[in-house]
Amino acid sequence: xxxxxxxxxxxxxxxxxxxxxxxxxxxxxxxxxxxxxxxxxxxxxxxxxxxxxxxxxxxxxxxxxxxxxxxxxxxxxxxxxxxxxxxxxxxxxxxxxxxxxxxxxxxxxxxxxxxxxxxxxxxxxxxxxxxxxxxxxxxxxxxxxxxxxxxxxxxxxxxxxxxxxxxxxxxxxxxxxxxxxxxxxxxx
Length: 188
Known about the structure:
- There is one protein chain.
- By secondary structure, this protein is of the alpha/beta class.
- The protein has one domain (about 5-185): Roll (Restriction endonuclease-like alpha-beta roll fold).
- About 30% of the residues lie in helices and about 40% in strands.
- The strands form 2 sheets. It has a 6-stranded mixed sheet. The chain has a 5-stranded mixed sheet with strand order 2-1-8-9-10.
- Helix 1 (about 35-50) packs across helix 4.
- The chain is globular.
- The mean pLDDT is about 90.
């Protein structure tokens, strides 16, 4: 008999001063049997960073035609596709063809750096792709906040991201490895 997903409930309060987004979200997160607490918490962090009324969790871990998170417009067109971890380069290319913007949050320390180095030439051609590396010590600390029932607060201000459960607080760094093409041209 197959092991079923673990259902986790998260009450997530978001105060994003950069986007002027202040909302509470009651989320149900299905954690696949092979998914770690670290990966699940990175998915919750990605939700907080891109929170929107139409943002929802997908079946990205079990269905390569779906994102880990995605936002669709009212016609069903995919505006934002978010994957976490180290997805296959071919799947990222496919996502870039289907969505207006694709964001990958990679983590895992040296493994993530090697994954990006191996794929950076292919990624450079994808104008609607951003790749953000999350430091391993930060994502491991995030996994310490994982519970079956969570009360989380996320504060985003001046490039800083904090996630707290009332007892512990974790600051998560973000290292951009690749930005969207229009963002890199603005910086030049």
